[in-house]
Structures are given as C-alpha cells and as structure tokens.
Design goal:
Helix content: over 70%
Order of helices and strands: HHHHHHHHHHHHHHHH
Distance between the termini: 61 Å
Radius of gyration: 20 Å
Number of strands: 0
Number of helices: 16
Length: 300
Amino acid sequence: MPLMDLGLWSEIFNFDNYGQLLQLVHNSLIAGAVLGLVGGLISTLVMMRDLPFAVHGISELSFAGASAALLLGVNVVAGSLAGSLLAAVVIGALGAKARDRNSIIGVLMPFGLGLGVLFLSLYKGRSANKFGLLTGQIVAIDDPQLGWLIATAAVVMIGLLIVWRPLVFASTDPQTASARGVPVDMLSTLFMLLLGLAVAISVQIIGALLVLSVICTPAAAAMRVTASPVKVPLLSMAFGVVSVVGGTLLALGGSIPISPYVTTISFAIYVVCRVVGAWRMRHGWAVRGTTESRSLVSAH
C-alpha cells in the first residue's frame, strides 16, 4: 500500500504554516544549537575514554530524577541534573576499571529506568510530559528551562576548555600521564561530573533513550574522517549542531517526537563519514592519521 495513501508521510513531514510554527520553537532552536556544541565537544572525550555505555547509564538516572521532579511538581531540569550527577558520582567512584564500570552501569541502568517508570506511572498529569522525557519534546523549552540549559552548558564548556589538554593526555595515555604528574584520578572524577551535566541537558531535548546520538555519534563520525586533535572536536561540534537543529526544524511540522529526526540525521552523518573515511584509508590517509595521533600524545 502506498505510503502517501496511509497519510503517514504528512505525519512525518508537514510544512503547512511552517513560518508561523517556526516562531514557536525559538527557544528550542537555541537550546538545540547549545546542546549540539556541548554534545559534540564532550563526545570527543567520551569516545577517547570509551564511555558510551556510561552515557547511557547516566541518562537512565537522569530520566529517573526528571520523572521524580515531574511527579513532585518541582523543576524537571533540577531533577534531571540531580539524577545525572548522582549516577556520574557512583560510576566515577566505583567504576575506575572498565570491567567494574560496566558492571556498575549494568546495575544502575535498569534501576534508574525502573524508578522512572514508577514515577511516571504515579504522575496524573499530561501524557505528553511523560513521553517527552523518554523521546524528547520540541516545544517544551520555556524561558526558565532555557536559562538553566544555557547556564549548565556554559559550566560544561568552560570546565572542558580549562582541563582539555591534560584531560586529552590522560584519556589517550593514562600511564604516561600519571608518570608525568598529571592528576589522572581527579581529572576522571571531574570529567564524569561534567558528563553528568551534559547528559542532563540532553535529556530535556532528545529524551533519555536516545542521548547517545548527541553525546557519542558526532565524535564517532568525526573520527572516521580525521585524527587531528583540533579537527575532531570542531567537526564533532558541527555535526552535533546540524543533527539537533536540523532535527528540530524537520520535526516542526510533523506529529512525531523530535528524537527520530535527530537520530536519523546523526546516523546519516556517521554513514557518510564512514564512507569518506574508508575511501581516504585506501588512498593513504591511515599513515597521515597515525602521524597526527602520535603528535597529539607527544605534544604533552
């Protein structure tokens, strides 16, 4: 049966009265651009430190915190932040080694998701509020939430920029960094806290289930086309902004949540980068990439 006959196409893409609808998502576009920058930057370190699974674990506790706040009628952003920071502290304190970290995350994820489902089940308000915490909301960013989001994003960005060089060194070669006096453990704890903040603001837009598309995929895509320590974070931030803002613009006329648009754009960017990276590998890019990676470590 043709897709158009089912009317599904108009539910996914509908550009009627697009100019008027665009004015309603002014805050969401700003929030999306901010989230794209933060997510793109921190995803570079997430990939370096092999922490995608930790991102997913933190998002589940962030979801539980936001759900509890929704049930209690308090600030959802504050609840999301509390849940994220709690998860980041627990994972950072108990999961120093990769095996321990994965075990802790495996325990926290279902616990956080279960708590979130419990709180949402007890919540008697609008169903859109419940669904939005899982899959994101396009018009749910009011002025107070936007202020929280920008302030939190500023803390994350400034924190990362201050410790960027030693954190990259500790992420790429922790043994050598420790031998040279870099406070590897302190940097690891600090990074987990910043990661918790970044996940908390991501849940407000993209939802708890699909945070990885903003805090993992952008850097994974960038690393397929370059190994430059400068180009990777810049490309990753560009990919993050395109994914979130582009997803917001496409979701504006449709009747489905924003997250499928964001994840599709993010995935498409990754596929294109993977194809480009494979082509460049066959034409000698691997040698140049290895040289750039070594220069990153030796620079410290």
